[in-house]
Amino acid sequence: MARGSRQRVVAYLGELDERGRAGVQQAVRPDCKQVNIALVVSRGGLPLGYKVFAGNRGDVTTVEEIVTVMEDTYGCASRIWVMDRGMVSAEDVEFLKKGGWRYILGTPRSMLRKFERQLLEESWSQVHAGLEVKLCAAPDDTEVFIRCRSAERGLKEAAMHARFEQRMEQKLRQMAASWRVRKHDPLLVAQWLGKLLGRNSRAAGLFQVHIHTDARGGAHLQWSQCDDWRDWARLSEGCYLLRSNVTDWSGEEPWRASMPLTEAEAAFRLRKNDLALRPVWHHLGRRVQAHILVCFLTCMLWKTLGRWCQDAGLGDEPRSIFAELQQIRLVDVVLPSRSRISIRRRCVSRPTQRQAILLQRLGLEMPSCIEFANV
Fold first, then answer.
1. Spatial distance between the Cα atoms of 32 and 341, rounded to a whole number of angstroms
2. What is the tens place of the pLDDT at every residue in 250-273?
3. In angstroms, rounded to a whole number, what is the distance separating the alpha carbons of residues 116 and 227?
4. Nearest Cα residue to 263 out of 12, 79, 86
5. How far apart are CA 46 and CA 170, in angstroms?
6. Are the CB atoms for 100 and 80 separated by under 8 Å?
7. Whether 197 contacts 204, CB under 8 Å
8. Per-domain residue ranges for the chain?
9. pLDDT at site 369
10. 279 prior amide bond cis, ω within 30
């Protein structure tokens, strides 16, 4: 988290008792040093403890150390390790299997191709509005693949594909027009084209580009669009794949077990966005440790509020409830007196019917006024 370094990786671990789960997540920041954070959570995702690991190395080299240290620190228990796809390699998967650990892992997007036929099927289980999952056993029955389809994520990816496609086609037209007027070296043109494809990788597979050399040695550009790539992009938008060796769960349970990964990153976003404290630069190790402690406490507080709302039958997302209760206003009334003593009275606006229901569900009683001492 110090300024002027290469990247930062946030690692998240969750641990439970018998059906515990653990996770590892990464977030790349080119302006920050890398640091790994191990967060221990309860079955409901409530943070219980954490540990900071040194970073500045390949992500896949951190898994064995994290698992070993957390086992030594918190003892051996039946737990499930949930890891982002960027944190694991084939060697890490083999390490987890040999150690007898259960896991839920993110997979490269290319693995979705193996399940193209299943993506076309309609037998999806709905977790909640906008999210569907489907299980598929591996050929050796030692693993199961969890296919997830998110409507919100699909809209986001579709917008990204459209944006990169438009940018790519516009740039290709400009390059082709320029090369028709001026002669360019084909090798240099190929280098420019490679950079263009690299900057627009989201839509690079859509275009088949060919460079032709004329009699004068000049380069000419021709391209066409690949319909197969576009069809696959539309089919896979919003879809992602998880793999797990927990084979006795239903389709919804593995997905819910992987959610602490998202919640760990949300703890950082909460402090940066809701508290308006972004960006925060740290140059000393103890300041980094303090920053992580505040994020840990933030995550603990947020999960506690979520459980409070859930127990009240209001769902597990307190942000919408806060937005409603924030509409309740306070008004300060100051009355001067002949003795030159001001009488101050803070009045509370009357809650609306919706706000009153929320307060009643949460077991809160709103005062009509707040008394101040005379000054």
1. 55
2. 767 778 777 777 777 666 665 556
3. 16
4. 12
5. 49
6. no
7. yes
8. 22-106+249-311, 156-233, 327-371
9. 67
10. yes
| CATH number 3.40.50 is the correct assignment for the domain at 22-106+249-311 | no
Written as one letter, the residue type at 11 is: A
Q: Which residue, 329, 310, 337, is CA-closest to 321?
A: 310
**186: number of Cβ within 10 Å:** 16
Report how far residue 324's alpha carbon sits from residue 12's, in angstroms, rounded to the nearest whole number: 32
The answer to whether the CB of 226 falls within 8 A of the CB of 207 is yes
Query: How many angstroms separate the first and last alpha carbons of the chain?
Result: 47
pTM here is: 0.69
Q: What are phi and psi of 50, to 5 degrees?
A: -155, 165
Report the candidate in 3, 74, 50 with the shortest Cα–Cα distance to residue 298: 50
Report the candidate in 132, 221, 214, 211 with the shortest Cα–Cα distance to residue 171.
221
Q: What is the pLDDT of residues 34-92, one digit of tens each?
A: 777 777 777 777 887 788 887 777 777 888 888 888 888 877 777 778 888 877 888 88
SS3 of the chain: the string is CCECCCCCCCCCCCCCCCCCCEEECCCCCCCECCEEEEEEECCCCCEEEEEEEECCCCHHHCHHHHHHHHHHHHCCCCCEEEECHHHCCHHHHHHHHHCCCEEEEECCHHHHHHHHHHHHCCCCEEEECCEEEEEEECCCCCCEEEEEEEHHHHHHHHHHHHHHHHHHHHHHHHHHHHHHHCCCCHHHHHHHHHHHHHHCHHHHCCEEEEEEECCCCCEEEEEEECHHHHHHHHHHCCEEEEEECCCCCCCHHHHHHHCHHHHHHHHHHHHHHHCCCCCCCCCCHHHHHHHHHHHHHHHHHHHHHHHHHHHCCCCCCHHHHHHHHCCCCEEEEEECCCCCCCEEEEEECCCCHHHHHHHHHHCCCCCCEEECCCC
